Amino acid sequence: MDCAELFGNVKKYWPSSVTLNEDTFDTLNLIYREFESKIAQNEDSWLEVSSWAFHQTIWSFAEQQTYAGQKEIKISDIPISLFNEKMLSNLKDGSWAEERQKYVPL
Q1: Residue 18 above 80 pLDDT?
Q2: Residue 48 phi/psi, 5° resolution?
Q3: How many CB atoms lie within 10 A of CB 56?
Q4: 11, 38, 60, 98 - which has most CB atoms within 10 Å?
Q5: Number of domains in the chain
Q6: Helices (H), the chain
Q7: What tens digit of pLDDT does each residue of 37-88 get?
Q8: How many C-beta atoms lie closer than 10 Å to residue 12's C-beta?
Q9: Which domain holds residue 54?
Q10: Torsion of CA 13, 57, 85, 5, to 10 degrees
Q11: Across the chain, what does the average pLDDT equal?
């Protein structure tokens, strides 16, 4: 599965922007949990691993942007390279061996 395709698919499940404030990380967790509950019945391993990687990506991006003094992040500004990094890290786990062999990174 191609990194760019996974990135495009999974970010559709997130709002177009997230306000950065004291509740940001609780908000990100709520959005992810809602998404996770929707895909729980879907047995699509790519959706499962890419949704978690995207959650990690947006979390890291939000931390960076908060530190830089930004008040909002746009999903369209999230770098695919950061998502690819999280995917590669997650796919190192032995439970994702089959997916790791089929993953096409950047």
Answers
A1: yes
A2: -65, -55
A3: 18
A4: 11
A5: 1
A6: 3-11, 24-39, 45-67, 80-91, 97-102
A7: 887 666 688 998 999 999 999 999 999 999 999 999 999 999 999 999 999 9
A8: 7
A9: 3-102
A10: 10
A11: 94
